[in-house]
Structure formats: structure tokens, C-alpha cells
Amino acid sequence: MKIVISVIGKDCVGILAGVSNKCAEYGINIIDVSQSVLQDMFCMIMICDISAMNVNFSEFADIMSVYGQEKGLSIHAMHEDIFNSMHKI
Q1: What CA–CA distance (Å, rounded) separates 12 from 55?
Q2: Fewer CB near the terminus (10 Å): N or C of the chain?
Q3: What angle do CA 54, 47, 26 make, to 5 degrees?
Q4: Residue 36 has pLDDT above 80, yes or no
Q5: CA distance 79 to 77
Q6: Given pLDDT bands bounded at 50, 70 and 90, which one contains residue 89?
Q7: With 80 as the cut, is the pLDDT of residue 83 above it?
Q8: Number of helical H runs and strand E runs in the chain
Q9: Average pLDDT in the 28-53 region?
Q10: Domain range for residue 27?
Q11: Range 67-84 average pLDDT
């Protein structure tokens, strides 16, 4: 199974490193990353494999949201099932 993590906030040193470390802490493998800086705003989307995740998904999503608040970022973790169901008729 996969998840999508989005990160948005004012650009500063260490955002990617911090989010990556949080993922590693919970056994999540980052498969793909896209990031850009628009003026002074940092935007990132990560696709991650959660097959070895060591907490349940909702707990991880909450952890990342709190981590984002602590760092002045908006971080959302979404399960791939949300995207798959959005595109089914």
C-alpha cells in the first residue's frame, strides 16, 4: 500500500530532511519526491510505501500533522485508497 504526503510552508533549511526522518522513524519507505519553491513557499509531494509501517495509518497522519504544526508547515498524509476511490464511477 502507498500513501501521499503533501508539505506546504515557508521555505527553510531541513524540511525534506525532517519529513524524511519522520518517515524512516515509522518504517515508511519514500518512493518518489517532487518539490519546488515558489517565491518563498516550499511545496512537496511524496509517494511512500507503507507495507513496513510500524504504526497504524491514522496515528501516523496525526503525528505528521502535529510535526508540521511544530515546524510551521501544513503536512497531510493521505492513503492511496482515497485517490483510487475518487476515480471510480
Answers
A1: 28
A2: C
A3: 15
A4: yes
A5: 7
A6: low
A7: no
A8: 3, 4
A9: 97
A10: 2-86
A11: 93
Burial of 50 (0-12, 13-18, 19+ CB in 10 A): buried
Domain containing residue 34: CATH number: 3.30.70.260
With contact defined as beta carbons under 8 Å apart, do 5 and 77 qualify? yes
Mean pLDDT throughout 45-51? Answer: 97
b (16+ CB within 10 A) / e for 1-17: ebbbbbbebeeeeebee
Edge-to-edge strand ranges of the sheet holding 73-79: 29-38, 41-49, 2-10, 73-79
Q: CB neighbours of 14 closer than 8 A, spacing ≥ 6?
A: none
Q: What percent of the chain has pLDDT over 90?
A: 89
Place of cell 504544526: 69
Query: Which grid cell is 18?
Result: 525532517
**Does the pLDDT at position 86 exceed 80?**
no
